[in-house]
Write a structure and sequence with these properties.
Number of helices: 3
Largest sheet: none
Helix content: over 70%
Structural class: mainly alpha
Radius of gyration: 24 Å
Number of strands: 0
Strand content: under 5%
Distance between the termini: 66 Å
Shape: elongated
Order of helices and strands: HHH
């Protein structure tokens, strides 16, 4: 009797574990497809972690430049804009 109960609990745990791993496999596949499509759309030949980091930092620098322009500054935002576009161009090369 306890043997059957143990088998039932074990099979329920195995089912939950398989369902959990299947869920994460699907979610990671979706993210992988998204980032592959984004890399192809941007023209990034080598979409490694460094390229994604450069892209993110470049976008943050461009956003910071836009904020600087809204504060009516000129020189600082132009430097940030050039650096941001340079990093993005480097990531896409």
């Amino acid at each position: 009797m306890l043997n059957e109960l143990g088998e039932a609990i074990g099979s329920a745990i195995a089912w939950l574990t398989d369902a959990f791993f299947s869920f994460w496999e699907i979610v990671l596949g979706v993210f992988d497809g998204f980032f592959e499509g984004l890399a192809e759309g941007l023209g990034m030949q080598e979409a490694g972690p460094l390229a994604w980091l450069l892209l993110a930092v470049g976008l943050l620098l461009i956003l910071s430049a836009i904020q600087g322009f809204l504060r009516r500054s000129i020189v600082g935002p132009i430097i940030l804009l050039v650096l941001g576009f340079g990093l993005i161009a480097w990531a896409m090369a």
